[in-house]
Amino acid sequence: MANDASAAFDTLSPAVSKGSLADPFTPSADSSLWRKNFLLGAATASYQIEGAVDEDGRLPSIWDTFSATPGKVLAGDTGAVACDHYHRWESDIDMLASLGLEGYRLSIAWPRVMDAAGRPNRKGLDFYKRLLNRLKEKGITSFVTLYHWDLPQHLEDRGGWLNRDTAYRFADYTDLMSRELAGTVDAWATLNEPWCSAYLGYGNGHHAPGLANDRFATQAMHHLLLAHGLAIPVLRGNDPASQKGIVANIGRGTANSDSAADQRAAHLFEVQHNAWILDPLLKGEYPQDLFELWPGTEPLVLDGDTQTIAAPLDFLGINYYFRTNVASDGAHGFRDVPLEGVERTQMGWEVHPDGLRDLLTGFRSTYRNLPPIYITENGMASDDKVIDGHVDDTQRISFLKRHLAAVDQAIKAGVDVRGYFLWSLMDNFEWAFGYERRFGVVHVDYSTQKRTVKRSAELVAKFLKERKAKV
Ligand code: IFM
After folding, report:
1. CATH architecture of the domain with residue range 5-470
2. How much is the pLDDT for 10?
């Protein structure tokens, strides 16, 4: 198995297998990944795995509503059952532990733990308490995201993230969670990928709640970031020993030509995907280029908001998946120009590990106060099949190795990256793409809920075992 994997690594990425870019799973004195304190784990999110959407007092979320709307999700799939993790959490944690994974990043379903009047729902809370206690018993580091897109529908009915009040409701929810769960969580992330919540949810409507207006997107983003900024001091007060941060998805944009217009287009792509979130968090201001791209979309910002948003962070979570090649759209924006002959995943996303390294090293020079980084998601979808009890996810093995090699390069270039979480622990509900796209390192048969560990997970487990024995 290890030989097959190495062969795939060589075939798919000749550049990486030569010179200084060694296979990161091969023991090497100077590899950062072989440091004992480089955390290697896996991630999931509540709506994508839990199911049990109307059990034990859970309220509807915007994703229940959206996925029940015809035409919004491929094949009409919903998260009603998903991986049935709400009932299978114990064996799922056993599986995580048996792979030797050192960290688990999960999210809490807000509609499961709080009622519409802001009162705790004990049954929902107990689910997360049991789970977090079990992780602690197993010595697995827990990263808990408070908001991974499943907004309670009753808040959306009052305007959702377009309503400033939602930011204050999020602070209340954070207060409850951090009082109830203090001491069981190693690291709290306020939001997962505010870009997706704001842009896909309110800008182009591909995600719940399905609204499509650039002005809505910038206002929703402002309220999301405000919610984050209000939550950070609450977490500090209630659970001082934990780390506090936020998770941002980042995108690499490259120019289709050397022309000034295309170079500018690539810059604007990264402003829209990265600086829109990172500048307010780390510089206390929105990038003005954003409003050149989307004239007239400046959000309503009240006095003090920018200071609130720029609350100091203990860590920044980075989710990276692909690169986008762009050209000028002839006006003040950019258009995608998909490259031909490049490697792609089941999502159609281009595999481009260098983008991760380049963005990380770029952030180090752009943001003087860049906090320590965890790669909180990285992975790929493939059309995996169980054959004779095994899943040979060769492309994923190659993908993981190349991205881990890119992380190692960034660390060597001086970026403080402290860990890496595979997306995802198991196949799950991939939002608007339903169950067709498989991101897991563990395969899920949705008709039986049988889990099958893929070759990629076996390889990571082998690496972790060897590292444990060595360091
Ligand atoms: O499945 C998602 C996850 O919920 C957020 N980040 C990207 C993943 C793959 O699309």
Report:
1. Alpha-Beta Barrel (3.20)
2. 40
